[in-house]
Specification:
Mean pLDDT: 96
Order of helices and strands: HHHHH
Distance between the termini: 31 Å
Helix content: 55-70%
Radius of gyration: 13 Å
Number of strands: 0
């Protein structure tokens, strides 16, 4: 199970966007944890898609989990996902996907 502890609000944000984006595949990953390179890649891409949704929601003034600007949580997301990927041995996948998204 993927359960972030330091910034537990990241868990709620991920659950919210899993529902909004209708990503049952990611819901399963969160429930079971990441075990393969393919799953690590899928989760990493989802996180970046989620970040885009967060930015879009902020730009449109949408209220998400009681806030109209969750962009302030982006560093918390980065910390938690980076730590999780390091702990599970998939940091290189996260770094690769992140570099592709940033470019």
């Amino acid at each position: 199970m993927i359960n972030f502890k330091r910034y537990s609000h990241v868990n709620e944000l991920i659950k919210y966007y899993i529902q909004v984006m209708e990503r049952k595949d990611i819901k399963n990953l969160v429930s079971n944890g990441i075990k393969t390179l393919e799953e690590a890649e899928l989760f990493s891409k989802f996180i970046w898609d989620m970040v885009q949704h967060i930015n879009d929601d902020e730009a449109s003034g949408a209220i998400v989990l009681g806030s109209n600007d969750n962009t302030e949580i982006l560093p918390d997301i980065s910390y938690e996902v980076t730590k999780y990927m390091r702990d599970t041995g998939f940091y290189s996948v996260w770094a690769k996907i992140s570099n592709e998204e940033i470019e």
